[in-house]
Give the backbone structure.
Amino acid sequence: MSDAIISVKNLRVEYGDFVLFDDLNFEVNKKDVFIIMGASGCGKSSLLKVLTGLVEPVKGEIYIDGKEFSNALDEQKNDIMKKTGVLYQSGALFSSMSLKENVMMPLELYGNYSKKEIEELASYKLALVGLKGFDDFYPSQISGGMKKRASLARAIALDPKIVYCDEPSAGLDPISSKQLDDLILELNQALGMTFVIVTHELNSIFDIGNNSIFLDRKHKNITAYGNPKELLRNPPNENIYEFLNRGIK
Amino acid sequence: MTIKLKNINNEYIIDLDLEEFYLKKDNESVSFKNKKNNDKNQYFTSFFSDDDRQKLSQLKNDGIKRLFIKVVGKDVFYSSLLGAKIFAVVKEVQALGFEADLSRLDDDIKKIVLMAFKDTGNYAPAETKKDNGFLEKVGFSTFYIWNNLKNGISFILESFQAIVNFFGGTAIYRKKDFWFCFEDCSYKAVGITVLVSFLVGLIIAFVGAIQLRSFGAEIYVASMVCIGMTRIMAAIMVGIVMAGRTGSSFAATLGTMQVNEEIDALKTLGIKIYDYLVAPRIVALVLTIPFLTILADIMGILGGAVVGVFFLDISLNSYLEYSLNVLSLNNTLIGIFHSLVYGVIIGISGCYEGINVGRDADSVGYATTKAVVISLVWMIIATGIITVMLEVLGL
């Protein structure tokens, strides 16, 4: 029986006349920290948008936790999305709500809990990501790194099986970036969550990724697939070598 | 979940006793269920009863500093709900002045719950909120109003300086931005100005006709509309329209620039934002609003003419004759003067609210609304002042 929690088959995505990628195929296994990497403009974030249902593919199939996602009805998609969480590049916290209210939102919408439980869960999730005591703070009152953590707390509010992260280290200093990576790894190991991370931060790729794909803009497809450290040791092509060696040809 | 405080070998342990309750996994969601009646709401409100608190207080007095936390019950497994409960109990224990020791928890629960207590270097400042007395509140409000007044006056003076620089040729700004504003305040506003002023002329004529008809003096509807529109109504209508479309646009544009740190970028480039952003907008509006007012005068008179001709059996020639008889340069210039004042008010309100916006999405919406409301309020105040002044001057 396949261990894949996400299965992408023959995916084609277009923006108007522009083909972003064609005939994309890959799988993400359960409990993976799966990295989607590539040069700027290769479609990493767009692929993430397809996996989270924000963009419709022109062709192909996506299976999430064994259920067909890409061609599902909106209601079915919503049910599948409840098992996933998303950490957006800039956090995307709701500025009119406190951090606790941000985390409470998915619990109120989809959780089967009492009000008191929802509040406790929200406080707990914030504490899990290192924001104990910041329940009543607003997004405008905290730093960029803390916003990412708060956004991660919201993403894991419903104990999702999959967490998507779009450039989680963007805009963070090296220490905050490392701390966020460590947090992702802890959640992955302690709670068994699968992480799908779009990034081009080499440190993160090697520190936490155990599987990856390399998207190539020119080929509009995957040109490398596997463990990042393995790809560094045995790069299948020049592009991936250059990418993983920070531009050295 | 009940809390039981136990003393075992002089170690004080808080048992989170699940015996009355059990964790139920239901379609991948977990809840506490009361064994007796399955009602998930029937389990607890606060963790410690008054009795418990008394016991704990006694322990504190006896010098006990640490309490162990343990979960007891059959088939205990980790879930976020259980983690959240443990977390909440620990917080309460810590608030009571004890150290909470989690070493007695099962390993699979402990390793996850301990993540919530990890030191990440993020420390929330201690709460310093206190209840202010009435006098303090009055004091704070006074300072708030005074600061706002100072900021407003400073903004107005800076804006006028920037306008002087604009006409003096010393202001640094993009001409393209100025012409873009000019375009937006001129022909792009014509459609709505024509519609609104035509309808206002129509309405004035209808309303006036009701009374004038009883004296057989319907023809004076023409005079009434002409004087009303040229002296004040056209200017007010144009002011309201421009406050809603242009004032709000200024606030939204500058507000979004503020949120995106574009205004900060201009400042660090050494560019004066009053010269670059504020003056072009106010000048564009002030230059175009008199022409829109004249257009509104004409359309208002025509609107009245429609009523006169089609509803009051007044010939078009008669209507226009009576209108032209009362049409005076004095009234027209007063109307234009009103419109210039409104243009300055709208431009300053819109730019002020936009530049002083907060750094989140809500603030931009709030600033946009405030710009319109403040413009309208000050327009009315200004109208009152100008009206009294003109009365005193006999104009």
Notes: The beta strands of chain B are 2-8, 11-17, 21-26, 29-34, 66-72, 99-101. The first strand of chain B starts at residue 2 and ends at 8. The two ends of chain B are 83 Å apart (CA to CA).
